[in-house]
């Protein structure tokens, strides 16, 4: 027999404004009609929005209060299930409300029966944003070490709140407080990339109130992201070039693409080029410097998705023969989108507490990093940032492998440049009720790919991996390589 839907969730659909009052009277949360969207100019999604007030330091209820933005996208059913799906964005630094607005279609099968519950993690989106007037190029290693330290100190001085309390260990407490405030019995969790760390730690901390969990682009709790990013990115690029060599049309069109890329990287490292080109988002002419750092950032982000992977050989070849504009335009577009989407202060709060202090510098040699197209620049930048950034709150067990018998679905992309499938295998080793699906030639994030929305919908509905038919995902589409700017060969 289905548990009755909590009265607050019914009220969020039926009234212009509603107030949630949990049974213990510990908090209230008013939700009002609103629309959420990816950005200005994008279509809005009807929702119910509110503000969850939380102390900066949960261990000190008298510390200053933070206003955390909450949104509830109502289920399509008039009699929804009581346990909503909670998507948790990646980054770290992206707001979950903005993330959901961009990927809402992926969760429509879940929304047939369940509400979608969203909270911008503290420090992101509209939840006490911890951002700085500094480009995200800072964390890509495009500043000198001295400039990186100076810019980081300036960022710290400009932050509105103490960054020590903007970590994963605190964020899961906020999510639990939201569940209590809304009187929800259990949550279904979806985490992507860094969001998989948050989801795993919530399940660790609150197993009784977690019903199911989906991890997409899995980060093992014990993994310290840093130098390993460059190693995995290089493996992904090598696989892209190998795939081009195995494709007769791509190999015929770009027979020496790997050497072209190596020569391009060396040339840009020796002498960056300056271009005047239209900004890909605004259309206004601007001057742009394009060097080895910009090349690395562009290639890394283009490697995330099979559709943009299809452009890499063409863009590299054109740049190698002197036509830098197409690749530089891709970099400008990626940089602006990252700058809009990520909160740099929150990003630093997480990585300087949960990753950089645990990096084993002896595990990956500097020579190995020098052999990658990213090189040691990003690792050096993170080390410089964290040399002045204060370490924050971290639970003693955050980095311990998660042990659980809850139903868990793991999603990986065979060509993921940052969270390869073997990361998910590590997580699966300590889970007793788990299924791992890997998309052939797919990149980072599977929830929108092919039939995955159907699989996710069935998994959340049944809370079972026993009869999960994933055959359709074995044939998910991967864009063929572009041979020119008109597209792939017919």
Please tell me about this protein's structure.
By secondary structure, the protein is an alpha/beta fold. The protein has helices at 7-14, 96-103, 108-111, 145-158, 168-182, 194-205, 227-246, 248-253, 257-270, 292-302, 306-309, 312-320, 325-341, 344-354, 366-370, 377-388, 421-428, 452-462; strands spanning 17-20, 29-36, 45-55, 65-73, 85-88, 116-119, 187-192, 210-216, 273-278, 285-290, 408-413, 434-439, 482-484, 487-488. The protein folds into two domains: 7-224 and 395-475, Alpha/Beta hydrolase fold, catalytic domain (Rossmann fold), CATH 3.40.50.1820; 254-341, no CATH class. The protein has 18 helices and 14 strands. The strands form four sheets. The protein has a five-stranded antiparallel β-sheet with strand order 1-2-3-4-6, sandwiched between helices. The chain has a five-stranded parallel β-sheet with strand order 5-7-8-11-12, with helices on both faces. Strands 9-10 form a two-stranded antiparallel ribbon. A hairpin with an 8-residue loop joins β1 and β2 (29-36). α14 (344-354) crosses α16.
């Amino acid at each position: 027999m289905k548990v009755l839907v909590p009265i607050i969730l019914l009220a969020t659909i039926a009234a212009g404004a509603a107030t949630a009052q949990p049974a213990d009277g510990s908090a209230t949360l008013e939700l009002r009609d609103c629309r959420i969207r990816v950005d200005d100019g994008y279509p809005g999604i009807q929702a119910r929005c509110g503000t969850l007030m939380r102390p900066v330091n949960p261990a000190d209820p008298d510390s200053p209060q933070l206003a955390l933005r909450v949104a509830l996208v109502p289920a399509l059913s008039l009699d929804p299930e009581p346990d909503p799906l909670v998507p948790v964005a990646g980054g770290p630094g992206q707001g979950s409300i903005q993330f959901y607005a961009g990927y809402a279609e992926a969760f429509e099968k879940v929304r047939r029966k369940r509400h979608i519950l969203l909270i911008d993690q503290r420090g992101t989106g509209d939840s006490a944003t911890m951002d700085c007037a500094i480009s995200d190029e800072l964390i890509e290693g495009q500043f000198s070490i001295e400039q990186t330290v100076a810019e980081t100190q300036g960022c710290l001085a400009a932050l509105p709140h103490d960054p020590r309390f903007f970590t994963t260990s605190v964020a899961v407490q906020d999510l639990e407080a939201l569940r209590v405030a809304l009187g929800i019995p259990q949550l279904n969790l979806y985490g992507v990339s860094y969001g998989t760390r948050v989801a795993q730690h919530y399940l660790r901390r609150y197993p009784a109130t977690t019903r199911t969990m989906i991890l997409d682009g899995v980060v093992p709790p014990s993994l310290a992201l840093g130098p390993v990013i460059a190693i995995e990115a290089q493996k992904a690029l090598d696989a892209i070039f190998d795939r081009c060599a195995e494709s007769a049309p791509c190999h015929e069109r770009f027979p020496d693409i790997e050497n072209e890329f190596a020569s391009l990287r060396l040339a840009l490292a020796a002498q960056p080029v300056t271009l005047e080109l239209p900004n890909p988002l605004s259309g206004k002419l601007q001057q742009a410097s394009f060097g080895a750092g910009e090349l690395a950032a562009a290639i890394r982000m283009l490697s995330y998705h099979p559709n943009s992977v299809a452009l890499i050989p063409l863009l590299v070849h054109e740049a190698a023969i002197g036509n830098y504009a197409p690749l530089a335009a891709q970099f400008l577009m990626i940089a602006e989108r990252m700058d809009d989407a990520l909160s740099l202060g929150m990003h630093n709060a997480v990585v300087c507490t949960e990753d950089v202090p645990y990096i084993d510098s002896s595990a990956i040699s500097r020579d190995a990093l020098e052999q990658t197209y990213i090189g040691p620049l990003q690792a050096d930048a993170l080390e410089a940032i964290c040399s002045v950034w204060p370490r924050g709150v971290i639970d003693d067990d955050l980095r311990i492998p998660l042990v659980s018998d809850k139903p868990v679905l793991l999603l990986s992309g065979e060509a993921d440049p940052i969270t390869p499938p073997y990361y998910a295998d590590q997580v699966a080793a300590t889970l007793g009720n788990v299924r791992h699906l890997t998309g052939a030639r797919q990149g980072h994030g599977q929830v929108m790919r092919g039939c995955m929305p159907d699989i996710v919908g069935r998994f959340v509905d049944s809370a079972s991996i026993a009869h999960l038919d994933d055959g359709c995902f074995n044939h998910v589409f991967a864009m063929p390589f572009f041979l020119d700017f008109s597209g792939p060969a017919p």
